[in-house]
Design a protein that fits this description.
The chain is an all-alpha fold. It is built from three helices and no strands. The protein has one domain (about 5-85).
Length: about 80
């Protein structure tokens, strides 16, 4: 085995070890994002909706959109609805 093949083998082993150790950490981040972060985003979004000076019908409509869409509703509100409605 020449030096180039040894270097490629070392890189493959290092990437494999990093992947082996990073998968549990990525699973914890996934858990934190979707189990903790999204409900916080929902409450912040609902608080933002109900503290604006918009019509109550618009507030109810946005609340329904938020409650029936998991992640897209809050993102639509913060990036589009907050400014345009």
């Amino acid at each position: 085995m020449d030096q180039k093949q040894k270097n490629i083998l070392i890189v493959i082993v290092v990437i494999g070890l990093l992947f082996w150790f990073l998968v549990p950490i990525l699973n914890l981040l996934n858990f934190a994002l979707f189990r903790i972060g999204i409900p916080i985003l929902w409450f912040a979004c609902l608080f933002s909706i109900w503290t604006t000076r918009k019509d109550t019908g618009i507030k109810v409509l946005w609340t329904i959109v938020i409650c029936f869409s998991y992640l897209l509703g809050p993102l639509f509100w913060f990036f589009w609805g907050k400014r345009n409605t």
